[in-house]
């Protein structure tokens, strides 16, 4: 554990970190670049602001999942601490901050790479797409294979970092939750729908999370939908629902319709649109599980290798 020790540094698990600069911020957290005072190695520090015991529980759940999952395609936890704040005013009610130290990836996110490709008028080659997808899927498999199974629930290019050697690393497990749910009442349906609206990015959200029905089952195949959207983004540099979003159309209706438009005259093989369509089935029960996706990607890679 640890505590704040001045504006420019903090102690976490008996290690001192010097704060260098702000890297970014979201609705629930800030991310700072920090340096280990002893080793001078750079890390990213995620500061999660908690406004209730429930939010504190969610933040610590993210920490515990990271600690339990030891996988090269899942972001590792370096150390963490809880700092009780107790700030209560009319404008702010913060009970605590959770500090999470994770590796700093200089190459940034997969979304950064996609944006750069788009600016340059370039595309990923197909071999690279399959290599990235296989790594991402293997990370997600580690989450799905957890006992009990978890689902990530917010897979998108912004939540995939890349190592110096290009290895994809799935991050931001703050939305991760038990994968298999039985929705029996209208209250349960409304609660899950509200949670998804708050924590699952619209352009990568599965249709069953836009409109949660009663007397239904939800499982880890919400992530398969998101992975299909990520595959589309790697190939065509945007979500398959970007155009609908820009037009102001209902994304709930667009995802349920299941109509995916593919650019004409693409240089990619038919494997790309075929596997995307296979993963983006509006009915979750018709989607593959993660092991099937991994097996199919490996099959495509094997065929491509034999052609060389």
Topology, please?
Elements lengths: L1 E3 L4 E4 L2 E11 L3 E8 L5 E9 L2 H16 L10 E10 L4 E11 L6 H11 L5 H19 L5 E2 L8 E3 L5 E3 L6 E2 L2 E3 L2 H14 L7 H4 L5 E3 L2 H16 L5 H6 L3 H7 L13 H9 L10 H18 L1
Antiparallel strand pairs: 1-2, 2-3, 3-4, 4-5, 5-7, 6-7, 8-11, 9-10, 12-13
Protein name: non-specific serine/threonine protein kinase
EC number: 2.7.11.1
GO cellular component, one term: Golgi apparatus
Can you give a write-up of this model?
- With 308 residues, the protein is of the alpha+beta class.
- The chain has two domains: 102 residues, Phosphorylase Kinase, domain 1 (2-Layer Sandwich), CATH 3.30.200; 198 residues, Transferase(Phosphotransferase), domain 1, CATH 1.10.510.10.
- The chain has ten helices and 13 strands.
- The strands form four sheets. A seven-stranded antiparallel β-sheet has the order 1-2-3-4-5-7-6. It has a two-stranded antiparallel sheet with strand order 8-11.
- A hairpin with a 4-residue loop joins strand 6 and strand 7.
- The protein is globular and about 55 Å long.
- The protein starts with a strand and ends with a helix.
Quickly describe the structure.
It comes from Biomphalaria glabrata. The protein is of the alpha+beta class.
């Amino acid at each position: 554990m640890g505590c704040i020790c001045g504006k420019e540094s903090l102690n976490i698990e008996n290690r001192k970190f010097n704060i260098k600069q702000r890297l970014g911020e979201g609705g629930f957290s800030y991310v700072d670049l920090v340096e280990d005072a002893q080793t001078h190695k750079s890390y990213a520090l995620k500061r999660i602001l908690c406004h209730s015991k429930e939010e504190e529980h969610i933040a610590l759940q993210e920490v515990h999942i990271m600690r339990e999952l030891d996988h090269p395609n899942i972001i590792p936890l370096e150390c963490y601490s809880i700092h009780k704040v107790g700030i209560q005013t009319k404008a702010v009610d913060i009970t605590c901050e959770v500090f999470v130290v994770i590796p700093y990836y200089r190459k940034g996110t997969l979304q950064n790479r996609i944006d750069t490709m788009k600016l340059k008028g370039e595309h990923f080659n197909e071999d690279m797409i399959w290599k990235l997808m296989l790594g991402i899927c293997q990370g997600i498999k580690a989450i799905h294979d957890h006992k009990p199974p978890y689902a990530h629930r917010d897979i998108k290019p912004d939540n995939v970092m890349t190592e110096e050697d290009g290895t994809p690393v799935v991050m931001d497990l703050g939305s991760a939750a038990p994968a298999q749910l039985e929705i029996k009442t209208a209250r349960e349906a409304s609660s899950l729908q509200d949670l998804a609206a708050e924590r699952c990015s619209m352009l990568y959200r599965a249709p069953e999370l836009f409109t949660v029905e009663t007397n239904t089952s939800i499982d880890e195949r919400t992530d398969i939908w998101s992975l299909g959207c990520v595959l589309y983004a790697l190939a065509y540099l945007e979500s398959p629902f970007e155009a609908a979003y820009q037009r102001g159309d209902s994304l709930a209706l667009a995802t349920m319709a299941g109509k995916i438009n593919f650019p004409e005259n693409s240089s990619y093989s038919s494997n790309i649109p075929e596997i995307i369509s296979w993963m983006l089935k509006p009915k979750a029960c018709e989607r593959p599980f993660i092991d099937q996706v991994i097996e199919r990607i490996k099959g495509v890679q094997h065929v491509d290798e034999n052609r060389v």
